[in-house]
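Need tokens for this chain, all 167 residues.
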Amino acid sequence: MKVISHGIVDGIIEDRFGKHGEHHNENGVPSYSLPLEILEAPEGTKSFALFLEDKDACPVSGGFSWIHWVAANITRTKLEENDSQANADFVQGLNSWVSIQGGQQSPDLSACYGGMAPPNEPHTYELHVYALDSMLDLKDGFWFHEMFRQMEGHILEQSTIKGVYRS
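Here are the structure tokens for all 167 residues:
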């Protein structure tokens, strides 16, 4: 399985998907999600799950990887730009903007894509996509550990793409 995104060009995440873009929620959090396409999904795939994280956030978040997007029960092999806001055909978990470090944004505003906003230097972001042999029993607003627990024993294949976003 391979994952590609036309929002990541030559290893660089385009400005529109983070703090330098034009789309932000009422708290100023970037809200315009990355597109992605899944190629060569394994036979038996019933759904996909994704996890977008920033490990470079550890020094500025108090020691934690920053979670920007968690989604499950995706049944399409292609997500368009801004599908986090525009489509309701998959469930989305809470991003790190709901945390104390993220300003304790409401769960309603945090159960979606919360884009890149590196405060100190360019950060590398990892988008992990999982092909699953089942749908997961999750509702919007789930915590990411719930997704990972339910995925145990159901991951057919996993693929990761990386991109750098400027500060």
